[in-house]
Amino acid sequence: MTSLSAENVTSSWFGIPGTIEVFGTPIAPLTILLTVVIIVAGFAIAHSARIVMTRYISSHVPPDTRKTIGKVTYYVIIAIALLSALGVSGLNLSGLFFAGGIAGIVIGFATQSLFSNLISGIFLQIDKPMKIGDPVLITGKLPDVAGVVVEITTLSSRLRMFDGTYVRLPNSDVFLSEIRNYSSAVARRVEISVGIAYKEDVSKVVGIIRKSLKETPLVLVEPEPDVYVDSLGDSAVNINVWCWVPFSVWFDTRKQIIQQIKRELDGNGIEMPFPQRVVYFAKQSRRRKTGSSDVPPEEIREGLNIDEYVHQSD
Question: Is the per-residue pLDDT at 34 higher than 70?
Fold first, then answer.
């Protein structure tokens, strides 16, 4: 509050008091004028800076991010202007600053995640690890999330998952996660595992699969397809089939290759076994004689397999 009395007027030019008491502090009129000029100039500079940031400097980022950068620049300059004006005025606002500091700490803790998402959203727009329409897999800090990018705002990213549902992810978590972008490359590798019976000729099967891939028009010649034995499983010999196809037709071509390999192997009489276990039982006659369910190991070795046991029981 500004008060004017005979005590606070020490000198006067053309009726203007030499000092004016503001919040208990005598301030010269010239100082008040300078303070007002600094505040007005701060608003003018902030407005100009927001226009420049929005139209020119931030032209390489999406509109939402441009607006955010412009607002942040505007309020930062306003804050600097107000602090400068208070410094020039010489007002004693230590009590106000103390209360404001406590309030700032409380507000800072309450909005920590908000500002984290805001800054992360700006960095995502600058770094551009993904864009609208890209199929991506986000993993690491978050549980695995796979889908198509629908929207990237300053606070969150929205994806349409492959089951048709939508998911909203905080930008701070997205920025700290591993982002696998499937649209960045022109071609993508198809990986298929085929299991064949142990009795089959591996070289023959590899030749059949290579011929099938060569007859598929969408399989790229370079890099060359690779067909090799990967492991000896419990029930089958596992063969890996790797080939490269154009990214835009990856899913459809993968389905076609699987169907074609199955058809070719069936046509050549190649057995593709399913997981199975062989269980042996002791002979029923010896079990009845002993009258006990405890069968010595030598009798187990002479036992029947499960198919023979079921057949005898019938």
Answer: yes
